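LOG
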Amino acid sequence: MSKIKTTLIGLALIIAISSTAFANGLSLNSVGARALGMGGAFVGVANDATAIYWNPAGLAGQGSSILVFGTDIMPMATYKMDLAGIDAKTNTKHYISPNAFFNYNMGKFSVGLGVYVPAGLGAEWNSADFGSPEGYDFLSKIGVVNISPAVAYKVTDKFSVGLAVNVYYAMFDMSQPAMISATSAVQFEETSTGLGYGATLGLKYELNEMFTFGATFRTKTNVTMNGTAKNPAFAFYSAPTESKFDRDVAWPTWIAGGVAIRPNDKLTIAFDGQLSMWSENQELVAVYENAIWKSAMSGGGDTFELNWKDALQIRLGVEYLLSENVVGRVGYYYDPAPAPDETVNVLFPSSTNNVVTGGLSYKMGQMCFTGAAEYLLGAERDIEMVAENAMPGVHQMDVFAFSLGFTYFLK
């Protein structure tokens, strides 16, 4: 194996050990099959039970319902570095998330509960593509489950307010080979979980039959991840091969505004602007319980600089009543990468995406079946050695996702 490959693997190890990066590629951009089909332009629409996520004020005034759906996400990433002879692509993996929402209308008041996955993704590579021996895991996997009770109140016939409480349970697993020589490695593993709390405030105003406006503010949610790291290489120094650790991570403040335009009874056109305040996550700090680990990792593993920038997503969605029972949807959104070149790595790809979406619903009595899909076309990132943490090479990732949902409307 070349010296360049050995250096690259060592660099990737430092990056991955110290970063559980929650960039745009790890946030589920469209919660709910209906919203997904409309490109996630749903803040001004927010008229099904997923309003708990998009805009809690939308719960007020809609009928009672139970909504369940599942989303399957399939990332397809590549990484090339000609100088080191690396031409790698991720293994085919399915990241499936089940979700459930409930809304009960009591006149002016509505209450709801959502148990859903707002973030989750991962990447799995063949370690041999990076110059490591065969048989070692080289992967990352993250998931967040949000338990979210909500309440909404219709202040007037036109104006509603809503509030949802967010209880985040986050899970993160990471495994990859740790090179101990030019030809041998050990398996590094890290597993952690954490809890965080926040809230979502929503406002919705129906100007008239044609225009409805929505606004949403979601607070920053701090999560302290607690877990265990395993590195057999420490045995060579008569040190423990495991150590517990803590790492503070923040899901950023989210501010969104949207408008839904209904020119007639069949057509809805929606526009959203959704701002994620990624600049609130400037660094990730891992604190190891074991003193030897703490000393050994202080050279590069305790703190990882992110230097992320705030990112504004622009979304457009269209919904059209094709027949009495069938509704069609299409959408588009622009999803800019918050991560600068110096913090991009293969276990947590971050790219600027152009995304196209589409979907259908079929209603039968009190039941409605919905399907939708989206394709994220990620722009290539040609990373140079611009900083100590940079992982040079050409990074690219596309994502295909589809969602199937079922709604039962209560009488």
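LOG (cont.) second protein
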Amino acid sequence: MSADTFPRLLLQHAQIRPTHPAFREKHLGIWQTTSWAQTAEEVRLIACGLASLGFTRGTNLAIIGENKPCLYWGMSAAQCCGGVSVPLYQDAPAADMAFVLENAEIQFAIVEDQEQVDKLLEIRETVAGIQHIIYDDARGMRDYKQAGVISLKELQELGRAYSLQHPEFFMQSVLAGQAQDVAAILYTSGTTGKPKGVCHTHAAMIATGRTLVEFDAIGADHEMLCYLPLAWIGDFLYSYGMAHIAGFCLNCPESSATVMTDLREIGPTYYFGPPRVYENILTQVMIRIEDAGWIKRKLFHFFMDVARRAGLRILDAKGGVSLSDRLLYALGEILIYGPLKNVLGFTRVRVAYTGGEAIGPDLFDFYRSIGINLKQLYGMTETCVTVCMQRSGDVKLDTVGRPMAGVEVKIAENGEVLVRSPGLMQGYYKRPDATAEVIDAQGYFHTGDAGFFDNDGHLKIIDRAKDVGRMADGSMFAPKYVENKLKFFPFIKEAVAFGDGRETCNAFVCIDMEAVGNWAERRNIAYSGYADLAAQADVINLLADCVEKVNADLANDNLLASSQIHRFIVLHKELDPDDDELTRTRKVRRGFIAEKYAVLIDALYTGKARQYIETQVKFEDGRQGKVSADLEIKNVKTFSANRQAA
């Protein structure tokens, strides 16, 4: 039996390493371990249970919830039956889920708890196709008697009985699977419209996963913490996919609130996260440093200067580090870097990756300088993530590395990045028209990103091609590049830059409530909530300093010196996926924001000092309301361009 599908890989591990941990889940403060052999049995019972309810080959199974072993088992079970797993974002409201559930023709769903059951029951009133809802956590479910709603334990009991009646079913179903069968449908974030279902085959996922495993020598002894959304391609490939190939253990946190604690307890050896995760971790570090005593603060900043000077060269073994700096760095490892990595849970990390969007060079530099082998990768849902990755010892802060083995990358005449690879999607679900728009006759996927190769063959991504524009003077304007520089500062959580076709670049910024709140409290600045804190004169001046530092940096950029920010507004509310301002992966929906906050954009460009606005918001319970504020518009210092010789 060739291991060319995920079910066959699962059974292979169950045979080769039956007692090796496949999953750990923290429940009631205690880590519970499930071996590969136990995992295979759990999956077999779920698969047989689904079959007893009428789940057949080609059927789609929705998976909704936090990272739990049983939900990963549900994915495997669907694939064992010849079906397709369709994970959804667990924090999406029912209205957002309805489109995906209807589009994917969902009849069966395995969900985490009562919250998700309630959403599906609400949706079922209008999306009649949902027939079977299986839940894991029974808390609050005692009085639920609706048709088709059963617990996972009940499903497995049905599976046990079905298996006795049809003893050959499971293996026959696994053997009937083909590498070219669709393994999962992963929906895009819907930055510019309705999400599209990306169909990935077993062959594409496994080929990409094998390349990743070989690239960094990932083996069964590795540990990974699963905390990213199940619906995101990053989790599906780097957790589910690679674990099936390498055989390592997936560790599921008790809840999203305990991720940092669970991270420290597990001490993963392999770590993956989008830039916002690393930004949040660094924000926590800087808050703790500011709260520390005078001596500790001085020691931290002294040894971080040493790390910036010598850490990167020591990590990449490039030499050129003086003996005194090596000794100081070794002392810093004992006093600062080692304890810091231990607090963060990164002591055992051999390799860490970030992707999904560009990461600020300063943020990247911080982690690498203290000895964490953080590297960048580039890809998207349609390419099964991996297009380019950085090799250890060959890392550049402003690139995403060279193309991976088997991946072809070329730059179109208009600067767009085109990709052809074994990991390319089969197509968009029920959207042959959309598929034809992005995959050309030569088999190249049009990424929509603008980029170029440097002299060393590293790919550098500038921005989304559709977002790259021109200032009024003809110079390039790349909003994401400017926004990423702003978001490096721990006080700025989100930013949106404007400037295409205009004489100046202006911006919206959102404060990081925790970081700015901590800063305000240490200065005895009273505030009643987010809007009040964001409107404080001291806070606006604090952010103005951050913006001016970004401008000073941009002044040295040959391409983007004209994109310095002249004026900015601190928004009175956070940008929120529930308000359609961000996608579920926290990507800015520019068109929607430009329309929603048009009055603020006009105020930025017409010289006003203040602007009143009322904004409609959605609350967690589904109700809608309005928030209003009279916002100050802040002018900031810009700098003369200091263009470098090419």
